[in-house]
Alpha-1,3-glucosyltransferase
Amino acid sequence: MAAPSPHKPRRRGKKTGSGNGGGSSTTDSSFESHPPKKEALVKVPVFPLASFLWPARGSVSQWEVLPLILMVAGLFRWAAGLWGYSGFQKPPMFGDYEAQRHWMEITTQIPVSQWYFHDLQWWGLDYPPLTAYHSWLCGKVGALIDPTWFELYTSRGSDDPTLKIFMRATVIVSEYLIYIPAVVIFVRRFSRHSGVPAWTAWMALVAILLQPSTILIDHVHFQYNTVMLGFVLASMSSMLAGRYLWAAVFFVAALGFKQMALYYAFSVFSFLLGSCVFPLRPGRFLGIALATVVAFALLLLPLVLGTLYDAHRGIDARPDYDGPPPPLPLLPWLTDVLDTNAIYYPVVEQLVQMVHRIFPFARGLFEDKVANFWCALNVVIKLRKYPSELLQRGALLATLASIIPPNLILFFRPRKSLLPLAFATTAWGFFLFSYQVHEKSALLPLMPMTLLLAGKQGLSRDTRAWVGFANILGAWTMYPLLKRVDLSVPYAVLTLLWAYLLGLPPTSFSAYFQEDQSAWRQWGTFLLHGAFYLAMGAWHVVERNVVPPADKPDLWVVANVGVGAVGFGICYLWCLLQLISQSDLLSTKGNTKSKAKTQ
């Protein structure tokens, strides 16, 4: 009998992580490798969000993780909504909550032709038609529960707690129908396009859904910004999928809901045009153009048909105005050219009034204290003494100067991987330099910048530090707005919680130091961001404990504006530099060819 062989089969090492790559890749930026033993790599999460999702790294199905993420996101939103809202028991105008409720009132109680003319001094409708249609639908549903919520005139300023529950529910339902699916689909497509493991993509999804500023403005202060942002995300997702006609349609829907979507218009145009030119595809260009025209036509169709129907019934768009039709706003000469008795004139009047309400140039360069260039400059040079036309031209030139560079890059390099950076850079340019900017407009550049977390090295320390810095700074600049309506507590809770989950200041400074970066870059970023975090913390202490001088009651708000404007300007420059770097514009020809293979 032969002796047993001394050879023993080699024992296979245990697999780490899941088969889908979530948590097992050594390049995953959400954890570090520490080799306590030569034969093993022990991987540990490096920030709390990774720790919370650590048990899910072995999940093989998205349906095991996604429902839990959506439930947690919904729980945070509903809990935040338990606080007060903008204008709660604060006459005479009662804030943004009353504006949204009032639009449900007028769209369900008066004829369509009067929507953009009715009592403009009391929260007159000043958003595009899709917002009006959304208000009409919500108002109809609410009237089934309690018709008194939307009775004309008598329901103004209502603080019915049941109405509050309904209004909060409309935000959440609208968000879960449009914004949440758009975020999930975008993160899935963008992470796959960037080669990001599934588990890392889940962490990015949680971070995006718990973005503090979005929850604070929509679910606490009260608005429907996420509907517009959801349509923008759907447009970006369609670009990633190569469905360019749908990208145009979804972006028209975003514009039709809130005109602030214009912040992204140049980037959408540049990418779609670049995809038609490089290489030349005239058929695609014509298809996108036709889809855009048809989408705008469908958007305006209910308003036009409603106006014609009211005119047919003899209902005047301005029942409180006697005599011949007054001159049209923006285009007063048009009244003398057109036949005011023609069947088409009510439609022209309606569309001109809609544009006039949507773009209120008469309000001035800025309406309130907002952390952009013009409001900060106004501290040194009083801009209100200059003619409005001059300020409009200055804002136009400055805005174009800031948005042309990123969009030229996107046009000549229409790469899908550049979309979040290009959108963020363009939106920062609009926020900093455009006309009539509101504090809440910071949501627009923050959204695409936060999407970087789902991309390649998105949860690396460097990207996480910059995205976190922008979001914390953005929430901080909104604090004066939130404090005016007694929402300081949800601001502190949501902002600090998000910072803690991502391992960011002021809860942790670990995101600023890593082995694969040069020391000067690490310390430079740390000192730059640290100065702003220190300024924000000191500002909160001073603002809470020191009363401003009687002749300067807005001193602390102005200081907030100055610090925020500088910080946002730095965010703009960082996004632009990252865009230039990742576009390979400055790379050698050989490097460009090698990188192009991986796009």
User: Anything to note?
Assistant: Strands lie at 31-37, 40-45.
